Amino acid sequence: MITCYLGLGTNLGDRHANLLLAVRLIQERIGRVVAQSDEYHSEPWGFTSPNRFVNIAVAVQTNLLPTQLLTITQEIERRMGRAEKSIDGQYHDRIIDIDILLYGNLRISTPGLTVPHPLIMQRDFVRVPLFQILSPRSAERSLLQP
Question: Do the beta carbons of residue 57 and residue 8 sit within 8 Å?
Fold first, then answer.
């Protein structure tokens, strides 16, 4: 078992319900969710939209390899209605986005996957929720919630 950290974001539809469904699908397809951050509300990053984002981070214990994890996170995105990732570096509104932030202590640099996620420190909507669940005290709090 390895603990990986995922960043989730949504700015379309019922954002809270989108996150709940994504977490449920992660639990079903990837592994046990052992910590979840509070919701973090933010303006779109890298593009203009009237739709604000809601983001969270989750810690998941999994037996999946990084490439399997990437495949399944992308399947979850498609299942929830996300048709495409960014196109030519252009971001857009999305029903769900799931990014692999950390995978244990592993460092990966391939054309399809970079871990740790290279923009963690430049994006408050990723950094703040991630650091919340990396804190041992907050991780214990999350584990005690039903």
Answer: yes
